[in-house]
Amino acid sequence: MVFPDAYEGRRQSLGGRGPARRRRPRAQLQAGRGAVRDARALALARTGTEYPVSVRVQAGALTLEIEPLMEDQELDARSSTGTIYWEGAVRAKQGKTMVGRGYLELTGYWKPLRL
Fold first, then answer.
1. Is the pTM of this model over 0.90?
2. Would residue 115 count as lying in a domain?
């Protein structure tokens, strides 16, 4: 998951409009210093697959609630990749304040992926 407010100070291009600019990090998440917990699962009627579409990310004093922008973002890709998965746009909130947007992909919930 990527959050605009959690960049590590690298230069980021903003949609190809103008030069890249440096973003000051508001939060740096370190490996092994946090937790991700399911907050709400969604079962889609089309396939019956249940996905943890809302999650709570906690790292130190930082807690983010990740929620989908639209619930039904399931892709049936059995004819190409052989699986069904959920992927799509999400928003990050701290309390009731939206602090970022991102993209979440959930695979292996329909059945385990065979690589």
1. no
2. no
